[in-house]
Amino acid sequence: MRVLLKKRSEDIVKEHDLDGLNCAICMEPWRSEGDHQVSCLPCGHLYGFSCISKWLQRPVPTTKCPQCNAKCKFKDIRKLYTTPVVVVDEGLQKKSDLLDLRDNLLDKESSMTGPVPGPIHTMYSLAQSPVLGSNSQKLLTASSMGPCVWNTDAGKRPYLVPGFENQGVCTSLAYGPLSDDIVASYHPKSMKSNSTVNSQCIDPDSSPFPGSATLCSQLLVKIIADSHYRNLGSTSAYLSNGQMARTAIINMQNCSPLFAYGDEATRGLRLKELPSFNVTQNLKPHHHPILDVKYAHDQDAGILGPVGEDKLQLFSAELLQKR
To answer: Are residues 185 and 55 located together in one domain of the fold?
Structure first.
């Protein structure tokens, strides 16, 4: 009585790995010539010639393939006269595919970080730019190096907006779509550089909170044409050490643009007129630092909203204009 045993899937996998690499009888690599030349049976399984010859010449009633039990005879052996057979290792092939995929992802990631490494923290569409037109496919983004412009329909790498080079660590970006004004806020690269800032550059309307604020710079650049920009000036302000600065540009009819930001010295919302950076208003302060500043508008009205840890304020743009 014969007992048929089912092969485990692990055994089948191992058997498949050996097929094409070693002789399944002696487990040794076969040769391209000689006694152990690679040979095949009608069923397609490969063996060394000397091994399969001995197997099929055994004194048994019926000779079969050692692997699949297909009936065969000595005369069915066929030597393979080929160059060395190479079988791709599936494990190595998968690793190679994963490496290729990782390289592709790294290439895409590097293209999304701007000209230099650093994650993007702010993004604006330039589709409403009066200069570029409504058909513009450009994006304005900011990473730690500063504002960058992307031309999404050209497939080109982004470029750093001229006028913002080597300013420090960019922590905030504001864009006014109606006036094409860009204001970027920069922390100094080190506290040492902060301590050496010329006292004449300090905003006289700010007084620092020791240990929680850093004297930072705010730069204004205006879009004047496609790929052309004009530096309109800069100022200083005290911003938080431990969080990203949040800012906004307010565009109103018959009024100069206003730049709004959370001033760490007063923990209130401060408004500065552009392009002069003259302080126009200091709105009611918060008990905690301002976490975000948003401005939304339509044809009839605009709303400015600073958000703190415990307070949300809403200001009408019309009231801001009248003050």
So the answer is: no
- In angstroms, the Cα distances linking 204 to 117, 199, 200, 208, 266 are 36, 10, 9, 11, 13
The better pLDDT of the pair 192, 33 is held by 33
Q: Is residue 41 part of a domain?
A: yes
Per-residue model confidence (pLDDT) at position 51: 93
Lowest mean pLDDT among 7-16, 19-28, 54-63: 7-16
Q: Which residue has the tokens 């304020």?
A: 313
Which one has a higher pLDDT value, 8 or 165? 165
Q: Quote the tokens at residue 250.
A: 């307010």
Could you tell me what percentage of the chain is helix, strand and coil, using 3-state DSSP and rounding each to the nearest 5?
20, 35, 50
Q: Which of 208, 267, 269, 268 is nearest to 236 (CA)?
A: 208
Full domain range(s) for residue 46:
9-79
For 296-304, the CB contacts below 8 A with 24+ separation are 297/251, 302/250, 302/252, 304/248, 304/250, 304/260, 304/269
Number of H helices, E strands in the chain: 5, 18
Give the residue with greater pLDDT, 305 vs 155.
305
**Tokens representing 284?**
């009611």
- For residues 72 and 211, membership in a common domain is answered with no
Same domain, yes or no: 262 and 170: yes
Residues 49 and 170 in one domain: no
Q: Does this model's pTM top 0.85?
A: no
Q: What was the pLDDT predicted at 289?
A: 74
